[in-house]
Amino acid sequence: MNIAMLGSGFIGRFYADSLQGYRSKDKIVTIYSRKEESAKKFAHDYKVPYHTTVMEQAINRPEVEVVCISLPNNLHEEAVLLCCKHKKAVITTKPLGRNATEAKRMLEAVEKAGIFNGYLEDLVYTPKFIKAHESVKNGALGRILWAKSRETHPGPHSDWFWDIEQAGGGCILDLGCHCVEITRSYIGKDIKPIEVMCWADTQVKPIDAEDHAIGLVKYENGAIAQFEVSWTFRGGLDLRDEVMGTEGTIWVNSFLRTGFEMFTSGKGADYVAEKAESNSGWLFPVGDELNELGYNHMFMDMFDSMEKGKQPRETFYDGYVVNSVLDAAYRSAKSKLWEPVKLDIWRGRTGVGKDSHLQEYDADHYLVKEEMTHYGAKKWILKNKKTGKIVERVES
Ligand SMILES: NC(=O)c1ccc[n+]([C@@H]2O[C@H](COP(=O)([O-])OP(=O)(O)OC[C@H]3O[C@@H](n4cnc5c(N)ncnc54)[C@H](O)[C@@H]3O)[C@@H](O)[C@H]2O)c1
Predict the structure, then answer these.
(1) Which of 14, 174, 243, 250 makes the best surface tag, with the fewest CB within 10 Å?
(2) What angle do CA 101, 106, 110 make, to 5 degrees?
(3) pLDDT 10s digits, 25-79
(4) 72 CA to middle of ligand 1, Å?
């Protein structure tokens, strides 16, 4: 695949390392950056034959097959519209838009232009997520009741993130977009998110946006998702998921405390992992960051799908749904009420009821709980269907 890369910053470089780092045939053929020196340096580092400070020029070259948007949030729409104009396949980093209105415009534009579109939500492509999600899909956890995702770190690295106008929001938008798509995937992307309750505050940073938030997202089938996000967390990048079902539980720790712990006095100290706050003392290095963060599997899905003429796992539509959930979170943080998720475009199921929580024991009883005691007796706690009385049966 011949790629035009828009943006030579933090994520542009992570993407480039993933795209070109593994004997890949995919090549970045043009790079756009705001500053000439950054474009030139990126072109030199990744052996990109063409660099420019004019966005359209990076897109509209005949050799470009797909455009990868790695730009600040306020520039996603402009870049997407240029891809539509020049009929170039487009993949864009998260969040899709600064809000659902922007995301919807982008979704409608790519569909009208008939171009391939992919949403680069890398955290649903991590090896751990893929395995966990397979287990959920295969029914290993039964009916999913609750899914929680947490992303917290000490704050982003570039000026524009901290400016609410350019970024579109604080940690809810920047990190919540990951958590919403992760939990939505566990619950089922065809299940409609219906309302959101969110607490948000600016506890530490001198900014207009929120630097810490916790939210609940209710789904039509009765499942609940939870996101915990912060730009004020100390100690590195904390990425964790928990899923609870009627038949099982999953705990995923993706970055800190992954089983790789190292102590160093700091002699010869080097880069440890994204957003690590220290390179001495006890550290939590990450074996293969590009893979652990899902970039490799993500680009594989994007380009394989393009070649096969099918949709990737994550499209602009998913980005739009995520933005809509986050818009409701912002409204709730202000109103302090459950706020509805407004989805003008919904392609999943509708009218999905809450599954029955009643488990049959016998003709007269529902099962509340079955247990083997430490003293060797087997117990059944039962509820009488007619009287509602709770009784206990013991077999020793
Ligand atoms: N895990 C992830 O998926 C992930 C991680 C980090 C960032 N991102 C997303 O990637 C996008 C870019 O973030 P980043 O961390 O690479 O930012 P960055 O500041 O490191 O890089 C942004 C790049 O955009 C270009 N640019 C063009 N016009 C600009 C302007 N007016 N102001 C600033 N930069 C301009 C520059 O080349 C700059 O290097 C954002 O949408 C962000 O949310 C995604």
Answers:
(1) 14
(2) 150
(3) 899 999 999 999 999 999 999 999 999 999 999 999 999 999 999 999 999 999 9
(4) 4
